[in-house]
Amino acid sequence: MSARYTTNQRKHPRHRVLKEGQIVCAATQDRINVVIRDLSVGGARIVSAAHVDVQAFDLFVPSENLTYPAIAKWRSGLMTGIAF
Predict the structure, then answer these.
(1) Is the pLDDT of residue 19 over 90?
(2) CB 47 within 8 A of CB 25
(3) Tens digits of residue pLDDT in 26-45
(4) Which residues are paired to 36 by β-bridges?
(5) How far apart are CA 8 and CA 53, in angstroms?
(6) Residue 78 has pLDDT above 60, yes or no
(7) What is the pTM of this model?
(8) Would you place residue 5 in the very low, low, confident or very high pLDDT band (cuts 50, 70, 90)?
(9) CA distance 59 to 45
(10) HEC profile for 16-83?
(11) Cβ pair 23, 31 in contact under 8 A
């Protein structure tokens, strides 16, 4: 039996969070509610109630009153990994 070891290749440590967020489309100012599940200096993992197919957007975090310019890096079901 051999042990498998994985190395964390992330540039920044991620923190597990449970925060409300909103995707804000720059052109239309439409807002899509999301849940932020992981957060780091360089990005986040967000979950939406429906499939979101937006590549570049702003992520607004109401609890912090902050907006992050973001780019979608990967998608899996209703989850999206984004980079700031």
Answers:
(1) yes
(2) no
(3) 888 899 999 999 999 999 99
(4) 19, 46
(5) 28
(6) yes
(7) 0.81
(8) very low
(9) 11
(10) EEEEEEEEECCCCCCEEEEEEEEECCCEEEEEECCCCCCCEEEEEECCCCEEEEEEEEEEECCEEEEE
(11) yes
Residue 34 near residue 23, CB atoms below 8 Å: yes
Write out the two tokens for 83.
């980079």
Q: Is the pLDDT of residue 55 over 70?
A: yes
Closest CA to 38 of 56, 12, 69: 12
Contacts 24+ apart (CB under 8 A), 25-34: 25/54, 25/57, 26/56, 26/57, 26/58, 31/60, 34/59
Neighbours of 37 (CB within 10 A): 16
Q: What is the mean pLDDT of residues 12-39?
A: 92
